UniProtKB/TrEMBL annotation:
Mg(2+) 1 binds at D207, E211. Its EC number is 1.1.1.86. Pathway: Amino-acid biosynthesis; L-isoleucine biosynthesis; L-isoleucine from 2-oxobutanoate: step 2/4; Amino-acid biosynthesis; L-valine biosynthesis; L-valine from pyruvate: step 2/4. Mg(2+) 2 binds at D207, E243, E247. One of its GO terms (molecular function) is metal ion binding. Substrate binds at S269. Residues 11-198 form the KARI N-terminal Rossmann domain. GO terms for biological process: isoleucine biosynthetic process; L-valine biosynthetic process. Its cofactor is Mg(2+). It is an enzyme of class 1 (oxidoreductase). The keyword Iron-sulfur does not apply. Belongs to the ketol-acid reductoisomerase family. This is Ketol-acid reductoisomerase.
Length: 347
């Protein structure tokens, strides 16, 4: 544990300096880690654990994801199994099915959660809203979480680049008395940057807020709004897209990702600084009521229910893909395809 000052608030964090990879391997040396679900987090976490020398198997139903697991070197009958077989063989069961899928499969999973096993999550959803998911683990197992704060795709690419994605961690149930060290060992094993403590409830509510808000939903809404206004006032798709997205991702976000928002501002003109400083609070005032509305909808469980109802339908994937295709086909994002092709590195 290291104490760090986060804007005046001291928090305890864990990195591989405090909790080494060797220590993580020692803690989990007698475990068979079963990664259940090979969608987005599954490949990232299973690949990083395997590369870090842990004993890992994968459980995935037949289909596209199963074929991807085979292509990634998981061997049917040796390291790749059906969901039920992998849960039976595993001692640390990593629930990396979709959140809705976890509900459907829970009766099968629960059968094999025998005393002494560990149930591991990467999102607090199933446990936090167990009144809606029906996921109530047996009392004689550990229930833990390491939640990557980013895509499983990034978890893997960053690991291969020698970097790490930050993760939160929590212990919901500690039947063994060793749940926390197993949690930290898993966090280091999947290639975390630094680990910060949370609870299943805090992670579930902040995560649903973030992905509906600043990380995905709100950013899409903001970018569309600006692009549309520019186009309605006669600006070309090229100018509207460059002024809304391309400059943001290629120039300005890397600056504020590197050294903070003031650094990005300081690297823009004084004209831009004056205007942005004047308009930021106006946008904040306009958006805060929507953010409050969002948080309430998450906290009451309404957002979780919407996700459960829609993503439990047999055609959930087709419906989501149809909406993503509609996004892809928007003029704004079609313009983006052409802009990306024109990047010097793509020619
Ligand atoms: N996507 C991310 O990068 C990300 C980031 C942080 C946390 N998480 C959490 O990690 C967990 C896994 O997320 P994901 O995005 O990798 O999942 P996903 O939506 O990609 O689904 C993973 C797998 O679950 C399987 N599945 C879905 N429904 C099923 C069902 N009814 N029966 C059997 N299998 C079923 C699918 O075949 C798929 O391969 C979730 O709890 C999620 O909230 C995901
Ligand atoms: C990658 C995200 C958005 O952080 C994750 O929470 C998810 O649900 O995919
Ligand atoms: Mg998230
Ligand atoms: Mg999420």
């Amino acid at each position: 544990m290291a104490e760090m000052n986060f804007g005046g608030v001291v928090e305890n964090v864990v990195t591989s300096k405090e909790f080494t990879l060797d220590k993580a391997r020692e803690v989990l040396k007698n475990e068979t880690i079963a990664v259940i679900g090979y969608g987005i987090q599954g490949p990232g976490q299973a690949g990083n654990l395997r590369d870090n020398g842990f004993n890992v198997i994968v459980g995935q139903r037949e289909g596209r994801s199963y074929e991807k697991a085979k292509a990634d070197g998981w061997v049917p009958g040796k390291t790749l199994f059906s969901v039920e077989e992998a849960v039976e063989k595993g001692t640390v069961i990593c629930m990396l099915l979709s959140d809705a899928g976890q509900i459907a499969v829970w009766p099968t999973i629960k059968k094999h959660l025998t005393a002494g096993k560990t149930l591991y999550y990467s999102h607090g959803f199933a446990i936090n809203w167990q009144d809606r998911t029906g996921v109530v683990p047996p009392k004689d197992i550990d229930v833990i979480m390491v939640a990557p704060k980013g895509s499983g795709t990034s978890l893997r690419t960053m690991f291969l680049e020698g970097r790490g994605l930050n993760c939160s961690y929590a212990v919901y149930q500690d039947a063994s008395g060793k749940a926390k060290e197993k949690t930290l060992a898993m966090g280091i094993g999947i290639g975390s940057g630094y680990l910060f403590e949370t609870t299943f409830q805090r992670e579930a509510t902040s995560d649903l807020t973030g992905e509906r808000g600043a990380l995905m939903g709100a950013i899409e809404g903001l970018l569309e709004a600006q692009y549309n206004v520019l186009r309605e006032h006669g600006h070309t798709p090229s100018e509207a897209f460059n002024e809304t997205v391309e400059e943001l991702t290629q120039s300005l976000m890397p600056l504020f990702g590197e050294k903070g928002m003031d650094w990005m501002y300081a690297n823009c003109s004084t004209t831009a600084q004056r205007g942005a400083l004047d308009w930021a609070p106006r946008f904040r005032e306009a958006i805060t009521p929507v953010m409050e509305w969002l948080y309430l909808s998450v906290k009451t469980g309404e957002e979780a229910q919407i996700s459960i109802d829609s993503n439990s339908k047999p055609d959930y994937r087709e419906k989501l893909n149809a909406e993503l295709k509609a996004m892809h086909d928007m003029e704004m994002w079609r313009a983006g395809e052409t802009v990306r092709k024109l990047r010097p590195e793509n020619n």
